[in-house]
Each structure stands twice: as C-alpha cells, then as structure tokens.
Amino acid sequence: MANQSVDIITKVLEQSAKLVEEQVDAQISKLSEMDVDDLERLKEKRLEALKKAQKQKQEWLSKGHGEYREIPSEKDFFAEVKDTKNVVCHFYRSSTFRCKILDKHLAILAKKHVETKFIKLNVEKAPFLTERLHIKVIPTLALLLDGKTKDYVVGFTDLGNTDEFPTEMLEWRLGCADVINYSGNLMEPPTVSQRSGSKFTKVEKKTIRGKGYDSDSDSEED
Fold first, then answer.
1. What is the pLDDT, as a whole number, of residue 94?
2. What number is the average pLDDT over the span 138-145?
3. pLDDT above 50 (res 190)
4. Cα 87 from chain centroid?
5. How far is Cα 101 from Cα 97, in angstroms, rounded to an integer?
6. Among 5-9, 41-45, 189-193, 212-216, which is the least confidently predicted range?
7. Would you say 49 and 101 are in contact if contact means Cβ atoms under 8 Å apart?
8. What is the per-residue burial (b if ≥16 Cβ within 10 Å, else e) of 29-64?
9. What is the C-alpha separation between 133 and 129, in angstroms, rounded?
10. d(Cα 122, Cα 63) in Å, to the nearest integer?
11. pLDDT at residue 44, as a whole number
12. Dihedral, CA atoms, 160, 141, 57, 71, nearest 10 degrees?
C-alpha cells in the first residue's frame, strides 16, 4: 500500500515536471521565432512604457506628490484635491499624540506611493470642512478618489487598535480603499506582532474645546 502511494506521488510529480518543461520550451520557441525586427519592436515598446511612466511621475511630483505636506487652510484643501485622482488627507490636532504617530507613517508612504497625494489639515483651521465631512474623531484620514471622499480611517481601530502598528498595516488599509497601488494581498492584513510594550487602547470619547470632536486616545488631555 505504501509503495503504491509512492508510485502515485512520483507519477504526479513527473507529470507536473513535464508540463512545466513544455511551457518553458514553448516560451523559448516563441522567442527563437522572433526576428530582429520583432525584438526591436519589443524593445521600443518597453522604452516607450518607461518614458510614459517617468513622465507621469514627473507630473505627479509637480502637483505636490512624493512628500507629506501640511496645507494651511480648508480653502487650500479644495485646490489640492481638484484634478487629483488619489488623495489621503489627515485631519489632525497638534496636541493629539496619535496624530504624531500617523505623521511618521504617512511621511514614509508619501515617498513610496508617488501616485497618491498625502496632505494634512489642522481641524481647528477647517471648521466648515470637518463638519461637511462629518469628522468627529481625531485622528481621521479622509481617502479621496477623483475629488470625492470614498472612505475614512477613523482612529486606529482598523490598524490593530494599537499605537505600535507597522507602516505596512496602514499601507494595507489604504490599499483596501484603492487609494494607492498596493501590491500585497488585500485579503489578509499584515501580521501585527504583539510585542511586550505594545499598547492596545480603547476609544474614549471626549469633547475637544466644545467643537464636538472625539479623541481616539486614552491619554488625550484638553
């Protein structure tokens, strides 16, 4: 019985190896059939694609992509999102500790994902906008596609509810909203290592200076 099982496994492996070999042979045959003109056209297509990608990157950089920037007022917000496909806007308050944590991760992702514009706006300078977008918890990320708000990351709940979440976790969450070009597996978030000292916090709602904002932190001080 054991020998029969070994024979079956061996046969399956041989068939798999033969299939892979045939696929490789087909690719080699296809390449060998290409003449000089075909190879030259292939080369030209690749160069054209590289030039197009570089041109697109330069256009993004000219519009403020590639860096994490603060905008001075809500008026500037509308100018920033106009004619911009992907935007991540961090609504923050300078005295909220978790906003500073987000700043660190967003600065990293802004350089990595040039296709998306990363900006921040102080909620105290944008009362109309925060009310219009229903910003109630600080920090909140507004994720915009083609000038329209499509999703929000409110506090750290979606990020493992810990102050020590990795940048990859935030990157995954933005990828789920299709606001960045994410190359990982959207079906599974990155593993959050629960090291000793990791701080898991619950959301406690507080009113900030009567504005009606809630703080996603257990250590917020007014």
1. 93
2. 97
3. yes
4. 11
5. 7
6. 212-216
7. no
8. eeeeeeeeeeeeeeeeeeeeeeeeeeeeeeebeeee
9. 6
10. 21
11. 80
12. -140
Structure tokens at 119: 């900006």
DSSP labels, the chain: -HHHHHHHHHHHHHHHHHHHHHHHHHHHHHHHT--HHHHHHHHHHHHHHHHHHHHHHHHHHHTTTTSEEE-SSHHHHHHHHTT-SEEEEEEE-TT-HHHHHHHHHHHHHHHH-TTSEEEEEEGGG-HHHHHHTT--EESEEEEEETTEEEEEEETTGGGTSBTT--HHHHHHHHHHTTSS---S-TTSPPP----TT--B---B---STTS--EEB-SS---
- Tokens, residue 181: 């070009």
202 pLDDT above the threshold of 70:
no
- Mean pLDDT confidence for 24-39: 70
CA-CA distance, 14 to 2, in Å (whole number)?
18
Tokens matching residue 182: 């994410």
Threshold 0.85, pTM exceeds: no
Query: How much is the pLDDT for 222?
Result: 33
Q: pLDDT-based confidence at 11, cuts 50/70/90?
A: low
Q: What is the pLDDT of residue 4?
A: 59
- Is residue 184 within 8 Å of residue 175, measured between CB atoms? yes
CB atoms within 10 A of CB 125: 16
